[in-house]
Design brief:
This protein is mainly beta. It has no helices and 18 strands. It is globular and about 50 Å long.
């Protein structure tokens, strides 16, 4: 079907769930759909140990809250993991690698108009465009991620609106291209 970015491509969806609470999608492989997993108007649900490859969108989470995406692989899609108008979610321990399409796709993870999300302990690697891309997103915490080989590593149209470290430990992310030093020794 036609490209519909930033809206989900719904010609064929591997798993589509909308308007529910307490749903878990676990232990599956999704390959070659327009959208691998599509959550819309969901609450308190999870995607765990799911692999989504060669789709237009790997995972698309829309207008949802309390979602946990954990221990999953989103690889070789046009667009990686997409959160739109979604808040209070956790993206933890995932591999978001090698998304393929140049622009506007090719990102590992994209947050659009989303807030209060926690992005941690992910490997975001070798995406053709942004590793992490934020647009109109704020109050998100991004830490303990390995961000390597993306072009560019990150884009945030309002970087002071998001926290790029863990407030408790003051630990940030590993940036594969970082060549600087921590001048003030604050670990941030």
């Amino acid at each position: 079907g036609p490209q519909t970015w930033p809206n989900p491509q719904l010609d064929s969806v591997g798993v589509r769930v909308g308007g529910h609470k307490n749903v878990t999608i676990r232990n599956g492989k999704i390959d070659g759909f327009s959208t691998g997993v599509y959550f819309v108007d969901m609450e308190s649900s999870a995607i765990e140990k799911v692999e989504s490859t060669r789709s237009r969108y790997g995972f698309y989470i829309h207008a949802s809250s309390g979602i946990t995406v954990r221990d999953s692989t989103v690889m070789a899609n046009i667009y990686g993991l997409h959160l739109q108008n979604s808040s209070n979610n956790v993206v933890r321990g995932n591999k978001l690698n090698r998304q393929t399409y140049n622009s506007p796709g090719g990102y590992g993870i994209y947050l659009y108009r989303s807030r209060n999300n926690r992005i941690l302990e992910n490997t975001i690697e070798n995406n053709v465009n942004w590793g992490i891309w934020f647009s109109e997103a704020k109050d998100n915490a991004i830490f303990h991620n390995n961000v390597v080989g993306n072009a560019p590593q990150v884009s945030d149209n309002n970087p002071s609106a998001n926290r790029w470290y863990d407030a408790a430990t003051k630990e940030g992310n590993y940036w594969g291209d970082y060549r600087g030093t921590d001048r003030d020794g604050d670990l941030v």
